[in-house]
Amino acid sequence: MRTINRLRATAACIGVTMIGSAAGAQDVATAPVAAEDAAPRDAARTNSAGNGEDIVVTGRLGTVNQRKVEASYSITTISDQELRQRAIGNLAEALQQIPGVWADSSAGVGANNTRVRGIPRGGYESLAVYEDGLPIQHDPGINWINVDQFLRIDESYSSIEAVRGGPSSIFAANAPGGLINFIPRRGTPELSGLLKLTTADYGQARADVWIGGPIADDWRFSIGGYYNKDQGVRDPGPTANEGGQGRVIVSKAFARGNLSFGVKYLEDNNFFFDAIPLVRTASGKIRPLTPFNGNDDTLTGPEDGNVVIKTPVGIRDAAFNLFNQTSDLQFTAKGDMRFDDGTTINAGFRYRDSKTNRNARGLNNLSTQAAYLTTNRANALRAFAAQGATDVRFVYSGDGSAYPADANGNGLVGVNTFQSIQNPIKEMIGLVELGHVFETGIGRHDVKLGFYGTTADWAHDRNDGVGITEVRDNARLLDVVAVNAAGQVVGRVTDGGIARYESRFAHSFGGYEDAAVYLSDEWQVTPKLRIDGGFRYEKIWIRGFSEGVRSFNLGDATTLADDNVLYGSGVLTRFDPAFDDKSYTIGANWQFMPNAGVFARYTSSYRLPQIGQYRDNVLPTDVRSQSIDQAEAGVKFQQPWGSLFATVFYNSFQDVQFTNTFIDPTSLLIVQEINYGDVRTIGVELEGSLRPTDWFDVAATATYQDPKFKNYSYNTIASGVTTTTSFDDNRPSSMPKVMASVRPRLTLANGRLRVLGEWRYEGNKFNDDANIVRLPAFSVFNASAELDLTDQVTVQVKGTNLSNSLGLGQGGGAQAVPGVAAGAIILARPIFGRTVSGSLLFKF
Question: Would you say 120 and 735 are in contact if contact means Cβ atoms under 8 Å apart?
Fold first, then answer.
């Protein structure tokens, strides 16, 4: 408790320090600064000409202005113009623009997946996601509440900066792979704004708005946000996506500092697109299972809204036709100050209150009707013998009509998990950074000392049910019923499509405190040579309770679905582990020309455990921090007519944690087996552009990586027998060796017409660490055109996946269904099919 109080006091001190710093800045201010100098310290002033003058600070070791071409690490910047021209719609799509990052956007708006430089961590466990220089969520990869649930890209952002590797793990928690910073717009000296209206061929209606300007006494305001409604590319029946966010920032730039206060509120309901069945033919090609269209079909349908999850205390509050419901209220205060002696103070504080209610259906496996009925026949006949049961059969849950043997051209039955998961989290985050520039006899030292702290309250509630459906687009629910000799229904194996209520239960609550201190030094030895280093120490205290589980019979004699319901036992088990670790980095940059240089860096970092690992009834053991060693070297070149940034990297990840979760068939308890292994990766990243004329330019990125498991064995349990399998030299799942993109652009009609093309390639990857299911390589073609009708009005049209590629993002394993398909069936999630959207932008 003393630790918690100290951390909360630290957060309060951070706010006081920041306000005091701004007040001090006001005292020493002599005149308002120019608009460009009033930009927040986290902003990147991106020059579309690519002349090397981009000023970047994300992941910076020092405080003196530094251009992108001078950085001693790999960084990518994306301006608001580029965001708009590429029509980037979510976090995963933004990450697809960055070399070294694999991002799959096939899940929809949120709950997508990423990998960075061969790190085998799913979700956003290796990539810190910031907004305005502060974490959106301290741990971006907490199970079931990934950070992309709380970030929506709209016209209130001015730019993005993304760091891969480098010093990101010194300045940010949970950032061994990198750091991406979304920078919102600030108010402008004169009243200005924009309105963008967007529509698409999947029923989208969206409006973005932003307005900024002066208030009084050099204070400025920025107000922006969006509202969106659409049916989704894979139409589930009910509205797939509906919601929006609003943001207000009030800021003031002083002669020696800045002060800002912001509020953001997000309320969004978005669809989670899950896997569909596909067939791998004898020739190795993949095609959708009949009757699916792989580009725009989904199993989810209107009948999902009829699903309920019964518990011993009533019906679970879960609406399966409302999908992922997210709300997030965020308050931010920031300030910085510069003194004549070279000292700087930067401080920030953020409080957020978020709630997520994730309702989703996931297809687990397929079965023939005969096989499923055979599995359930004996129990059903025994349970309903007194009623005269002689057989079992399938019927549609909605109207009770018979399910045909050849239904939908495949006659199959889908066994699904209906998941209802609630995760509220309240969090306070604060930091204070002190910087000072020392001029010495041997160069200049730019030193920074930082303090970071966070405290959070968290809960996790999960109630799953097993549901039976047909296998087609917008699948309907099925029931298995017991019938007598006359064919009359005398009992139900399932209930409203549910074969088992509460097949998985979890209830945990608690929180965490995290504190870190870091120190860095950028030593400008000569005008061309710079050496930098940094050190971070961090500790996290995780606390809470997890409820045990036992089986209940809800007592409905007319169905078997409620005979074995898992629910809370009322017995709480306390968890209160603490973990700490340290990281350090050292790098050198030789700027042999103003717009060209080389750099090298070594970083030893870590990934601390997170509270989501303690979400189930059986607490994991042998949880530990993961050690990560990284080395990289690169060359940088940038001119108005072109640029090239090339980086070679090597990573060694020790004690990478893998969790095998299963239900013990004897105890019916959820078991989490923790396994550890190593992953070693060597790779190269390329990012370049060429502008041979004023009317044509082309940008490109490419990544080659070769990640391999080392010292990794995976245990599985079947019928009480443990089997050990070595995955050494296997490639971790969801990691293509090759990724590339090329984006040519024509600028015509005196700059009023801009035509942008994009070719994106993703090499083959495995769907599992055992490297059994290989997902083939694919290419995607996108194109957009922007026309300035006037200086204030711009129209845009964009086509996505114009070739209707059936690229597979990720999915589950392979399954053989005898007599049904010519090859194994793969449950995988294809990328979205061809779409066309258009927007109209008004500026003033």
Answer: yes
**677/598 Cα distance (integer angstroms):** 33
DSSP conformational letter for 303: G
Compute CA distances 508 → 27, 124, 354, 512, 754, whole Å: 49, 22, 17, 13, 52
d(CA 572, CA 421): 19
The per-residue pLDDT for 667 is: 56
Going from the C-alpha of 734 to that of each of 95, 284, 770, 776, the distances in angstroms are: 15, 19, 12, 11
Residue 665: Cβ-neighbour burial (10 angstroms; 0-12, 13-18, 19+) = exposed
When mean pLDDT is compared across 50-64, 482-496, 521-535, 629-643, the lowest value belongs to 50-64
| Distance in angstroms (rounded) separating the CA atoms of residues 459 and 430 | 22
Kindly indicate the confidence band of residue 66, based on its pLDDT and cuts at 50, 70 and 90.
confident
The closest alpha carbon to 47, from 747, 767, 639, belongs to 639
Amino acid at 749: A
For 10, counting Cβ atoms within 10 Å of its Cβ (0-12 exposed, 13-18 middle, 19+ buried), the class is buried
Quick: pLDDT tens for 145-160. Answer: 999 999 999 999 999 9
| Residue 643, both tokens | 């640029």
Residues 601-631 as b or e (16 or more Cβ within 10 Å = b): bbbbbbbbbbbbbbbbbbbbeebebbbbebb
Cβ–Cβ < 8 Å for 358, 23: no
Cβ neighbours of residue 11 closer than 8 Å, sequence gap 6 or more: 349, 428, 429, 430, 453, 454, 455
Give the residue carrying structure tokens 């090397």: 52
Q: Is the pLDDT of residue 8 over 70?
A: no
Q: Does residue 441 contact residue 352 with C-beta atoms inside 8 Å? A: no
Backbone angles phi, psi at 497, to 5 degrees: 90, -5
Query: Are the CB atoms for 520 and 534 separated by under 8 Å?
Result: yes
Q: Which amino acid is at 293?
A: N
Residue indicated by tokens 């399938």:
394
Contact in structure between 481 and 491 (CB atoms under 8 Å):
yes
User: How far is residue 820's CA from residue 203's CA, in Å, rounded to a whole number?
Assistant: 36
Q: Where are the beta strands (DSSP E) in 397-496?
A: 412-422, 425-439, 444-469, 478-483, 489-492
Q: Give pLDDT tens digits for 757-787.
A: 999 999 999 888 888 888 899 999 999 999 9
| C-alpha torsion 290→291→296→299, nearest 10 | -90
By C-alpha distance, which of 615, 274, 551, 238 is closest to 421? 615
Tokens at residue 475, please?
């699948």
Sheet with 134-135: strands ordered across: 74-79, 157-164, 178-184, 127-131, 134-135
Statement: residue 17 has pLDDT above 50:
no
Matching residue, tokens 């033919």 = 281
Contact 552, 310 (CB under 8 A): no
| pTM (2 d.p.) | 0.88
Asked whether the predicted pLDDT for residue 31 surpasses 60, the reply is no
Phi, psi of 306 (to 5 degrees): -85, -10
How far apart are alpha carbons 834 and 200 in whole angstroms?
11
Given a contact cutoff of 8 angstroms between Cβ atoms, the answer to whether 610 and 588 are in contact is no
